[in-house]
Write a structure and sequence with these properties.
With 458 residues, this protein is an alpha/beta fold. It is built from 13 helices and 22 strands. The strands form 4 sheets. Strands 3-2-1-4-5-6 form a 6-stranded parallel β-sheet, with helices on both faces. The chain has a 6-stranded parallel β-sheet with strand order 14-13-12-15-16-17, sandwiched between helices. A 5-stranded antiparallel β-sheet has the order 7-8-11-9-10. Helix 9 links the parallel strand 13 (260-265) and strand 14 (282-285). Helix 1 crosses helix 12 (354-366), helix 5 crosses helix 8 (243-254) and helix 5 packs across helix 12.
Amino acid sequence: MKVIICGAGQVGWQIARHLSGEKNDVTLVDVNADLVRRATDTLDVQGVVGFASHPDVLAKAGARDADMLIAATHSDEVNMVTCQVAHSVFNITRKIARIRAQNYLDPLYGNLTNEVGLAIDVVISPEREVAEAALQRLAAPATFDTESFMNGRAQLLGIQLDEDCPVLNTPLRQLNELFSTLRAIVVGVRREDRLFAPDPADQLYADDQVYVFTHFEDVNRTLEIFGKKTKKQERVVIVGGGNVGLAVARALEARTDRIRAKIIEKNRATAEHAADALERTIVLNGDGMDSDLLMEASVDRADAILAVTDDDKTNLLVAVRAKQAGCPMTVALVNDPTLAPLMAPLDIDAYINPRATTVSSILRHIRHGRVRAVYSIGDAEAEMIEAQVLSTSPLAGRLVRDIEFPEGVLVGAVMKGEKVMKPTGDLRIEPGDAIALFAMAKDVPEVERLLQVSIDFF
């Protein structure tokens, strides 16, 4: 498939890395020659320097015979105009735009970003994706990462193993025997900065980070087995009242179980806007780094603090200060992935990387066909892929034990109708079933072959 990616920043580069690694014809367009050079030097892609919205630049990038355009520059307006030019001038069939300003996404102006308006097929809103990720972190406070699959009936949980974890030094095969009714599978393990798909004979050790795919009804039991306590969130402090913080607060207000939330926002105009938009949430105008203000917000009695300002270092320091004040759970928004190794030494429970959430969302829409969900794990090291099994797939009609999956691929669950099932060896995969697969990045092309869903299956 021929893809044009406009914007060679972090998101554009990661998408190009994914697609070029799967032998697609990828061209990156950016006005910054250094970013284009970095991409062409490190990836198997072509590069064009220029304004993405200019027809002659798109023509030079091969728009006349392109199958898809992804507009992920730093400008919403450039992304929207680029999609319109791709549609009107070059008739590119599929166009994805990253749009950050929430005004463009207001339901009042719904015709702006569809075929009636600017001919954008898919809109990706990083702020909404990050807000959703934050809510998922709050829903599973004992995890450092979480994502929903199979219509919300299954979850991927990232769990940090402590010294007191009761299942340390236990082979995974034995773990399945001990908890035979537990609908959960360890699909990935990160040990000493290396992520891998474990074998049944592998054991778990303290400080491992494990990814567990589990039925939603078994989430609490899974956490308890891995030594994590579950506690209902009742009080939440949000530092940062911008788009992300406001979206999280609105979602918390809309929930049936009453959660008391407070927002701390440094900018007075932003704080006033948040206060006007919310009903029950208390908004405090001030610096989240101020210890006195944190105590005024009762951070010592809060169940969790969510630091989502637009400054990584502020978020990290706010989380550290809140933990020192007695807050049991801290979540920080971190744009720079190189800061991720600091989370454990700083005792920060979870972090959200906007790049990873945006990349996952774009991949979900790229692998459209029978692929129902994609979640990018770590620094694009692996993916959790949910797909419907086609009758033409090599998986159809076979027992799980008889399928020769690559070494870096594990089955997380199989959903038959509305029932999510643990992937035992004697479970037969039938056409129409949904299957969730953990795959290391190098094995994704083979997974797509097994699913009989290529990246251009629309």
